Backbone:
């Protein structure tokens, strides 16, 4: 498999744009797919620079209902008229972020796209094809990220803590290797890996995605993970004997802490980076 990072908070060089968002191109044995489309049309610009033809994409997976992962959906649908777009049936809910001061900010998806013919709504465990599946409904055996505390959904006219039932994860299996892809891991990266184990009776060989160990809420450090918790997560991940690639909502400080614990078992993915697994 070849993975190219089309959008991320940082860039591998000045040739690529960056934004608060995530988009990954994955070229697998039997298909070409995108996992998320960032916050805007930036993923498309970076895709051209990386030699990725968006017209050729077979599948698009939207990991959850936040703009920084699905904000580029309208751009994608304007460029690709054949791909199936797999999105959880709760992803178009009304999602908000409450910063340290001020009113809640809408961070959801464009509701005008709900009826688009290319959308396929998923739930719980969904099989796209042989060796490609999605799962949500992650059991919360460990506490979720502290940075979830500022995130809400509107239900029956009231603001409630977001349960992240709308978040889904991707598994791709080729030969004897398994890749797990997460968007933001709002349900907790440890919980997600444990759920993978419950489905596959083994650990993934590779994990790519954000771990949501930091918060974008300015001026509120309480919404970022304690370094003692990051240390605990790092030790758990190291014990899985899995190779990790992360970025976006993991945050550079948390990544550096994980790197100190995990060494070569974890790497950072910036916009413009390419890996082969």
Residues:
């Amino acid at each position: 498999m070849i993975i190219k990072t089309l959008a991320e908070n940082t860039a591998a060089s000045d040739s690529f744009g960056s934004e608060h968002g995530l988009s990954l191109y994955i070229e697998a044995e039997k298909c070409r797919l995108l996992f998320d489309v960032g916050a805007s049309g930036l993923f498309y610009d970076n895709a051209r620079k990386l030699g990725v033809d968006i017209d050729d994409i077979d599948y698009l997976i939207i990991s959850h209902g936040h703009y920084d992962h699905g904000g580029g959906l309208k751009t994608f649908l304007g460029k690709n008229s054949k791909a199936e777009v797999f999105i959880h049936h709760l992803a178009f809910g009304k999602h908000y972020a409450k910063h340290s001061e001020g009113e809640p900010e809408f961070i959801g998806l464009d509701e005008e796209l709900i009826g688009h013919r290319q959308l396929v709504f998923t739930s719980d465990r969904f099989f796209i094809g042989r060796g490609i599946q999605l799962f949500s409904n992650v059991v919360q055996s460990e506490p979720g990220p502290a940075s979830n505390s500022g995130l809400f959904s509107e239900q029956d006219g009231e603001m409630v803590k977001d349960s992240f039932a709308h978040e889904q994860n991707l598994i791709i299996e080729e030969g004897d290797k398994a890749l797990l892809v997460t968007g933001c891991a709002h349900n907790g990266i440890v919980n997600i890996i444990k759920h993978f184990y419950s489905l596959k009776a083994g650990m993934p060989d590779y994990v790519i995605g954000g771990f949501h160990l930091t918060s974008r809420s300015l001026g509120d450090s309480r919404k970022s993970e304690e370094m003692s918790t990051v240390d605990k997560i790092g030790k758990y991940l190291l014990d899985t004997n899995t190779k990790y690639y992360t970025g976006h909502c993991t945050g550079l400080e948390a990544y550096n802490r994980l790197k100190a614990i995990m060494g070569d078992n974890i790497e950072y993915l910036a916009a413009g980076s390419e890996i082969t697994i």
